[in-house]
Write a structure and sequence with these properties.
13% of the residues lie in helices and 60% in strands. The chain is mainly beta.
């Protein structure tokens, strides 16, 4: 199974929360239907963890097909650590920050099971804003 990240964005910055969204595109190149479950990931800001998600939802990726899994992480103001709060106090600090998404998922097909299959992505915040910073500030 191959994976790719698409539409990785910071979709909202508000007075009470910040929201990251992305699509994890799973490509099944095998002749077996695959079940993907136990998707767990964490978001790092300049090598400091700012949040994590443990998804209990499962996805069926049919043989020789692609499945898009939309994932979201919303952090409330209380959850933002000091490093991230400081970054938002200065626009240049925010835009130059490095965001990393890393995680694991369980993949199974018939009698085969792979636990903790890893995935990883890294980009600057400036590239994740995409359109304009003013369009995501709420």
């Amino acid at each position: 199974m191959d994976y790719e990240f698409e539409n990785v964005k910071i979709t909202g910055i508000g007075s009470q929360a910040i929201t990251f969204t992305f699509d994890l595109v799973l490509e099944n190149t095998s002749d077996l239907d695959l079940k993907v479950y136990g998707i767990n990931f964490k978001v790092m800001w300049n090598n400091q963890q700012v949040g994590s998600v443990q998804s209990t939802q499962s996805y069926l990726v049919q043989r020789r097909s692609t499945q898009v899994v939309p994932l979201t992480l919303s952090l409330t103001r209380d959850e933002l650590n000091g490093a991230l709060r400081d970054a938002f106090s200065n626009l240049q600090n925010f835009l130059s920050g490095i965001i990393r998404i890393s995680g694991t998922m369980n993949v199974g097909a018939d009698f085969i099971k792979i636990n903790d299959y890893p995935f990883d992505y890294q980009e600057t915040a400036a590239n994740l804003v995409g359109y304009s910073l003013s369009s995501i500030i709420r």
